[in-house]
Amino acid sequence: MWQWLNNEKPALSLRSKGVPLLLVTLLASGGCASTQMAENAAPEDPWEGFNRKVFAFNDVLDRYALKPVAKGYRAVTPDPVETGVGNFFSNLGEVRTALNSVLQGKPANAGLATSRFLINSTVGIGGLLDYATLMEITADEEDFGQTLAVWGWEDSRYLVLPFFGPSTLRDTTGMPANMATNPVNYVEDDAVRVSLSALNVIDIRAGLLDQEELIRGDRYRFIRDAYLQSRQFEVSDGELGDDPFASETFDFDDSDFDNSGQDDSDSGGDEVTD
């Protein structure tokens, strides 16, 4: 049984599924981002001055509170258990994916998400084991922010939220609906509900520890650009646009492959004499 738990966890996207977007921002730990605002803010980030201040606030909270806890969690938690915890919360996220897939007019994806939830909740022992993936049943993750994009709110301003981290005005608008579709929020016992939410936050943060090494240059801009690109990728379901090389109208110019400038050494090499 443990071999299923010990499968490598998939890379975490820069968004939170079912819990506050806290933690995604926390890639910024380990050093305070520059608070100097660029003279010309990016078009998608007109509130950069405000966002940088909130970013710095979140960074302090992460460095002195969440990151140490996440490191401790990773140190004492066996890999199979950590994978099982991630699987458990990912399985709960299938509820949100199924609902938003219906709202976006994607019945096939809704069916796949529902199948994943039913399989992993039963055969997978409450979602601890991801049997659905082993059966090659996968679904594109969806949330209400993506639903709003499908409904027409395509472009939105970047916004960093206190405690919650990177977002956009559109995604922030969708947060209440995302929280409403998180099964953890319906646990009646306060202690259990809070404990599960905290565990989810810590598990997500622990999964981001290794990714911090990827950050280069201005940490604020790096995380902003990564978040916006990730969200665009998710909204478009991974479609990156037309490939010109795959187009029937694409034509090669023979001059692109002209080897006339190369030496004819291959065809006219020295003769070999006995």
TrEMBL record:
InterPro entries: MlaA. It comes from the Bacteria. Residues 250-274 have a biased composition (Acidic residues). Keywords: Lipoprotein, Signal. Residues 237-274 are annotated as: Disordered. Pfam families: MlaA. Belongs to the MlaA family. This is VacJ family lipoprotein. It comes from Vreelandella neptunia.
